[in-house]
Amino acid sequence: MAAVTYELIHVCRQTGARLGRVHTPHGSFDTPAFMPVGTQASVKGMSPDELKEVNAGIILGNTYHLYLRPGHELIERAGGLHSFMNWDRPILTDSGGFQVFSLADLRDIREEGVTFRSHIDGSKHFISPEKSMEIQNALGSDIMMAFDECAPYPCDYDYAKKSMEMTTRWAIRSKAAHTNTEKQSLFGIVQGSTYVDLRRESAKALTELDFPGYGIGGLSVGEPGEVMNAILEEITPLLPTHKPRYLMGVGSPDYLIDGSIRGVDMFDCVLPTRIGRNGTVFTANGRIIVRDAKYSEDFRPIDSECDCYVCRNFTRGYVRHLFKSGEMLGLRLATWHNLRFLLKLMENVREAIRNDRLMDFRNEFFLKFGYSKKTGVPVKNESP
Ligand SMILES: [Zn+2]
Fold first, then answer.
1. Are β-strands 59-61 and 37-38 bridged in parallel, bridged antiparallel, or unpaired?
2. Ligand 1 center from residue 219 Cα (angstroms)
């Protein structure tokens, strides 16, 4: 039996969204789930206890960053990533591919793998499917991702086809190289850019390889939201019912809800932590830039409907003051609230699935929150 298994609990009669639970060697988490990103073995500004307080069931670590610094061998000597960062719940690691393609310099992509220069010190490195598995096996994550090429957007058909086919061959090599199958599960990644026939071919080939779960990569890279939704509608019905589906790099409230409606179980994104550090916070009425002068004497919580530690104890005016004063607590409080906002949103999504009313919930949520530009409806950026 695979280290990681998926239990389907209920399918929403209104939308087809899935309520489920993923079981791992470090415990279980409920789905659909949002995974906070701990790039450098740390979700920026949040301690493990605080992550539990906001109800994070699983977090993500970045293979590329941890390989470069402090190095996967060091983390292995520390007892693995869970022990190194003192997080005892599930961890998912990506393959390193996305960061190699987006951050590193002088990439040379070949069938064998990718040669690149570190964005930190310019040193030369080579990552192949085998190397990615070696690194992820050393990190000891519960869920590992196959090494893939995330094709750029836009991308012409021929490139997308060749890239998708190479990603399938890399998935076969990843599976062969993965050694610790009793404690770690390896997910394949569906690619194929915005071309539905390529996506279908990729999903079919990977399903035949019988991975314990599937990533859907190469989306939310600049394409319109309706293109992403159309691809999800094509792909998720082709994936096995009793295995989790993970939409990679997606974390805005609209995409979390619309992805859940299309049968996605897991999501991750740096969005809540990154915008939090810039002084932007989610509220039930849309995003606000809490560092703006207009909040200096606003003594309400960031979001009066939020149940988080920050909203129970501090005001917009105080958080704004912390940002203006360069106090590190400001970044932490904004991050803390944003994570809780998205994790609470996923709790509400799961509740709505259980009650067969996810479409109603979606409509109620967006009536107040506003839509994103990507969905074609103007954003309501500022709440009163
Ligand atoms: Zn809050």
1. parallel
2. 29
Q: How far is the CA of 381 from the centre of ligand 1 (A)?
A: 17
CA 304 / ligand 1 centre spacing (Å): 8
Res. 372 pLDDT band, cuts 50 70 90: low
Please tell me the chain's helix, strand, coil percentages from 3-state DSSP, rounded to the nearest 5.
40, 20, 40
Q: Give 310 Cα–ligand 1 centroid separation in angstroms.
A: 5
| Catalytic option among 94, 142, 254, 303 | 94
What's the farthest any 2 CA atoms get from each other in the chain?
60
Please give the Cα distance from 377 to 384 (Å, whole number): 19
Residues 6+ apart with CB under 8 A from 363: none
155 alpha carbon to ligand 1 midpoint, in Å?
40
Could you read off the pLDDT of 44-62 as tens digits, one per residue?
A: 999 999 999 999 999 999 9
Q: Is 303 a catalytic residue?
A: no
Known catalytic membership, residue 94: yes
3-state secondary structure 295-333: HCCCCCCCCCCCCCHHHHHCCHHHHHHHHHCCCHHHHHH
161-215 per-position pLDDT tens digit: 999 999 999 999 999 999 999 999 999 999 999 999 999 999 999 999 999 999 9
pLDDT tens digits for range 58-90 = 999 999 999 999 999 999 999 999 999 999 999
pLDDT at 111: 97
Say how many Å lie between the first and final Cα of the chain, rounded.
53
Catalytic hit among 254, 258, 268, 298: 268
DSSP element (H, E) containing 23: strand 18-24
The pair of three-digit structure tokens given for residue 56, joined into one six-digit string: 């994070």
| Cα–ligand 1 centroid distance for 20 (angstroms) | 26
